[in-house]
Amino acid sequence: MEKEDCIFCKIISxxxxxxxxxxxxxxxxxxxxxxxxxxxxxxxxxxHIRSINDLEDADKTxxxxxxxxxxxxxxxxxxxxSGYRLFFNVEKGGGQEVFHLHLHLIGxxx
Length: 110
Ligand code: AMP
Ligand code: ZN
What we know:
Blueprint: H1 7-12, E1 20-23, E2 27-31, E3 39-45, H2 60-76, E4 84-87, E5 103-107
Antiparallel strand pairs: 1-2, 2-3, 3-5, 4-5
Zinc ion is lined by residues 3, 6, 8-9, 48, 100.
């Protein structure tokens, strides 16, 4: 999929509205439209990278930025103490449906 057709690129460029929770120069965080848990966030690098398979050495900071943003957002959403899951779906067989790298954060169960 080309960047031009990418729904997450359109969210980043504000062409598509979303429930935006955090944004800086590298990362954007918004609520998943179809939540799997009481708290379900997507942490998305602004750089269009298809999946984990497409990461290059120069993208190492992207991965760190996503994980650090997840840590901050878990605290902000008050699921840090109760616990949460972080995961990447990789390609179709791994459940990936949007081919712009993103880290899922789910939690908030009773
Ligand atoms: P994945 O299956 O890992 O590619 O995850 C893609 C996720 O993006 C799914 O959980 C969808 O519910 C979510 N999603 C798709 N479109 C939107 C959107 N416009 N706003 C928020 N989340 C979305
Ligand atoms: Zn994209």
